[in-house]
Amino acid sequence: MKFVDIVRKYQQEMPFPEAVEKAIDECIKKGILAEFLRKNRAEVLRVSIFEYDEEEHMRQEREESRQEGIEQVNDLYDKLFELGRSEDVKRAVKDAKYREKLLGEFHMD
Q: What total number of domains does the chain contain?
């Protein structure tokens, strides 16, 4: 936990890989996991960066999916307004099942 806190502190000032390196050095100096970090420095650095990259990748994937969903719904609403189906828009805003039905109707699912 202390190691992670130190990494986060340094991450505010520098790129993540550098923050991990600096945190490892600081922990060794302060006797926090010192023996473990001396023996496993490269592994700790590699695993920390891999997990960070994976977490960032997952966050980006979620954001892209969210944006795609928003665009899909906006396209549906545009189409419905274009066809004069404003009542369907009102209902779709509040009813997820109905919205899914409409997406299917227009082959947007």
A: 1
